[in-house]
């Protein structure tokens, strides 16, 4: 199914939103609760699934939509359609501060993109959303990230949300090691795993952990500087400062 062609503008700096302009009868799909505003002529409908396969059976719809529950997302998605006779806009915002990344799936390898489970914001109608289990089950069990990812497929525009600043890297038959929570998205042919690095001492006293996400191959990778996990820890009264002080004290005892 060919995706709808949508126009967009990203507004803001540290807390961004995406404003999408729809021609008559154009549709954009979004996570439930992501809508910020909509102009006259826009109508929305909550549906089970992304609507990418019009002739999909009820069982397949239930299976596809139900799989989203495993990622922690809503069973339903909201479809916004311009039912008016002129262009109209609808805006979307993410649930926490960060950056909106526009990605043209038509230019991605295999027209596919792997996204962290809470990274998808919205996309042109015709985009297929599904879950993808990491082929290395250990990635999810020991690393805490990456066991379940969302796969976006299509030839239209998709929008992914990231916390803090976004870094786009292009790998050329290279390996990149990243904090497990900082991987936002990567092209589907990139090899993704979580590997143990360092030592127990590094985990206890260094604060970096002993597991890192490893991305290998050639293609695009998007990273975020402030995943929601780190944001919550930083705001917690028992967050990073307390951990650093404890690590310094215990580290000194460990050395002596």
Concise synopsis of the structure shown:
This protein has 256 residues and is an alpha+beta fold. The chain has helices spanning 58-69, 137-143, 200-206, 228-235, 240-255; strands at residues 7-11, 17-22, 27-31, 35-38, 42-47, 77-82, 88-93, 98-104, 112-115, 120-124, 128-133, 148-153, 157-163, 166-179, 183-187, 191-196, 211-224.
Largest sheet entry = 7 strands, antiparallel
CATH superfamily of one domain: Mitochondrial biogenesis AIM24
Q: Per CATH, what is the topology of one domain?
A: Double-stranded beta-helix
| Fraction in beta strands | 35-45%
CATH architecture of one domain: 4-Layer Sandwich
Counted beta strands? 17
List the helices and strands and how they pair.
Elements: E1 7-11, E2 17-22, E3 27-31, E4 35-38, E5 42-47, H1 58-69, E6 77-82, E7 88-93, E8 98-104, E9 112-115, E10 120-124, E11 128-133, H2 137-143, E12 148-153, E13 157-163, E14 166-179, E15 183-187, E16 191-196, H3 200-206, E17 211-224, H4 228-235, H5 240-255
Antiparallel strand pairs: 1-2, 2-7, 3-6, 3-10, 4-7, 5-6, 8-13, 9-12, 9-15, 10-13, 11-12, 14-17, 15-17, 16-17
Helix pairs in contact: 3-5
Plain-language structure description:
The chain is α+β, with helices and mostly antiparallel strands and 256 residues long. The chain is built from five helices and 17 strands. It has a domain at 7-164: Double-stranded beta-helix (4-Layer Sandwich), CATH 3.60.160.10. 20% of the residues lie in helices and 44% in strands. Strands 9, 11, 12, 14, 15, 16 and 17 form a seven-stranded antiparallel beta sheet that branches. A six-stranded antiparallel beta sheet has the order 5-6-3-10-13-8, with no helix packed on it. Helix 3 (200-206) packs across helix 5. The radius of gyration is 20 Å and the shape is globular.
